[in-house]
Design brief:
Elements (H helix, E strand, L loop, with lengths): L2 H27 L2 H8 L13 H17 L1 H12 L5 H8 L1 H29 L12 H18 L2 H10 L5 H6 L1 H15 L5 H25 L3
Helix pairs in contact: 1-3, 1-4, 3-7, 4-6, 6-7, 8-11, 10-11
Length: about 230
Amino acid sequence: MTWVEHMEELRQRILKSLLAVAIGMVAAFFFMDPVMAFLTRSAGTLYFLKPAEAFMTYFKVLAVVGLLLASPVWFYQLWAFLLPALTRKEKKTLLAFVPFSVLLFVGGCVFAFEIVLPRGLAFFLEFTSPAVQPLLSLESYLDFMVMLVLPFGVLFNLPLALLFLALAGLIRSEQLRKARRFVIFGSFVAAGILTPTTDIVTQCLLAVPLILLYELSYGMIRFGLGR
């Protein structure tokens, strides 16, 4: 395929992914009340401070839920776009990435929502006094939640990204072994940036899974692929 053909294929796959997200948003619209009750259960009573804030926030939630519902489609489009770089045998292996990508993405989001989000929220709400009390707005809480939860879903796909690079011949297990110390350091740096609190426990909740996923990737590439 020429460069122009690759760009046309990319455009088509992006359009299909966006269509799937739009369909997911329409489906989510009919369940907005239980969805909002579920997403805001950690925050208690929320308020909106501007006339259009509730409407715009509901639209953002629809987009995020639509993104989650459409994840099997856009993960398939992503991996299918990368297939031409591999051999026929490797393509069959890559097709198995789609369900695992979805599971890891959703698993990372659930992990962040159920474990990290309550701790981060509780940490920030501790900074109160008789003269200063929290008044959370709907928009600020949901923006905080999305910016915390979605990166976990993306980062939990680290093993599949490394496996793809190994299948494409771009990395080998020996390189991963040598880079281990930098990965451990980088995981804690990333945790310090992405997690909303400064306590070491919350940061470990992100850094330790990342390190474990990296070690899992190393084992699969070395012993599973023999590379």
